[in-house]
Design goal:
By secondary structure, this protein is an alpha/beta fold. The protein has one domain: Peptidyl-tRNA hydrolase (Rossmann fold), CATH 3.40.50. The chain is built from 7 helices and 7 strands; from the N terminus they run βαβββαββαβαααα. Strands 2-3-4-1-5-7-6 form a 7-stranded mixed β-sheet, with helices on both faces. Helix 2 runs parallel beside helix 3 and helix 5 runs parallel beside helix 6. The longest helix has 14 residues. The protein is globular and about 45 Å long.
């Protein structure tokens, strides 16, 4: 069983904000699929090419994302190597991405929460670039909406690559294979 996590904050006021890029990518990937909800997340269970997959968007807010991830891992007995976390990254240019494993949170509070709750950073992450703010006001920057141009950079042709990463992850590619295949495509 695989677990694909898109990080973000719940609520209309956070839709299309930079911090919600993980939610946006899952919404695009799953298109019009209907999300179920529990105390921790909105989720979709699927069977893709014979692999059971759970997609989640934690509703615990970004800073407590680890609680949701821990719940799904324990409830469904999912191994750490079978999770993929999709999140925003200030150190990568808008529309670019990087796959990473065994690394620090890079200041992303959602990733910090997951590392803390799981007791490890040994999970695959799809880091999606949102660029740094020009004025160093990170909190306001990540909680504001993308410009149309920046949103198109992410949800345009780069989205097709990110969808292939998700599909390859689901169908059995391990972290090393995915990093070797896709990190050079940016």
């Amino acid at each position: 069983m695989k677990l694909v996590i898109g990080l973000g904050n719940p609520g209309k006021q956070y839709e299309k904000t930079r911090h919600n890029v993980g939610f946006m990518i899952l919404d695009e990937y799953l298109d019009q699929s209907k999300w179920s909800k529990n105390d921790y997340a909105e989720y979709i269970k699927a069977d893709i090419d014979g692999e059971k997959v759970i997609f989640i968007k934690p509703t615990t807010f970004m800073n407590l994302s680890g609680n949701a991830v821990r719940y799904f891992i324990k409830y469904y007995k999912i191994n750490i190597e079978n999770i993929l976390v999709i999140h925003d990254d200030l150190d990568i240019e808008v529309g670019e991405f990087k796959l990473k494993i065994n690394s620090s949170s890079g200041g992303n509070n959602g990733v910090s929460s997951i590392i803390e709750c799981l007791g490890t950073n040994n999970f695959l992450r799809l880091k999606v670039g949102i660029s740094k703010p020009l004025n160093n006001d990170t909190i306001n920057y990540v909680l504001h909406q993308f410009s149309k141009e920046d949103l198109q950079k992410i949800l345009g042709k780069k989205m097709l690559l990110m969808q292939r990463i998700i599909e390859d992850f689901i169908t059995g590619s391990n972290a090393s294979e995915l990093m070797n295949k896709y990190n050079g495509t940016i």
